[in-house]
Amino acid sequence: MFSRDNLNYDPVLLPDRLDYDDDRLRAEAQAFFSRMAARHTVRDFTTRSVPREVIETCIRTAGRAPSGANHQPWHFVAISNPALKSRIRAEAEEEERRFYAGGAGDEWIKALEPIGTNAEKPHLEDAPWLIVVFAQRYGAFEDGTRYKNYYVPESVGIASGFLIAALHHAGLSMLTHTPNPMKFLNEALGRPASEKPIMILAVGHAAEDAKVPAVAMMKKPLDEILTVAD
What we know:
- This protein has helices spanning 22-37, 52-62, 82-103, 106-112, 123-126, 152-169, 184-189, 222-225, and strands at 74-79, 129-136, 138-140, 146-148, 173-177, 195-204.
- The chain is α+β, with helices and mostly antiparallel strands.
- The strands form two sheets. The chain has a four-stranded antiparallel β-sheet with strand order 1-2-6-5. A two-stranded antiparallel ribbon has the order 3-4.
């Protein structure tokens, strides 16, 4: 974290060490892959509630992500209030209608066709929780003095990955929603101009009849996403 206090480099011994042998390493890596391979983006949620403390713990996990200069340039807003979710849906759908009416361009719309999306976003109301991820472009002290944050998109991206993994590990389903622009979220959620909304995560339990697009099951094989220089 950044502070006006003079924080000096003060190394301490690594507090947590996982000293696995190679067999345990392989097993742990495979187990986590298997768990994450069972993660699917869903748009259909049940009305079953999710305890607030589960959401808080998952966000606490996101807050453990590495960040540029340890500034932790993120903020998460968790929303269960029905009226607020309804407002977010209405404003998001207004942006989406402009997107699908030509703002996106033909190539982007064609790319989305196999996903089956459109301007209607009922999941923003149906899911028991929405989590809005904000990136703090710069920090500010109580008197308004600004300070710079570093590697903000990279840091927030890593934290968002932690959050998605934590939510899935807890047994929840989610959908990443990224209307653009999303400036309405600052006003709706009372967040300062220094923060940029990056995504909305709709979070809850998948409906019994939830479906996913077949194309979403098509993942690139390892040899297309990995180059090894050994």
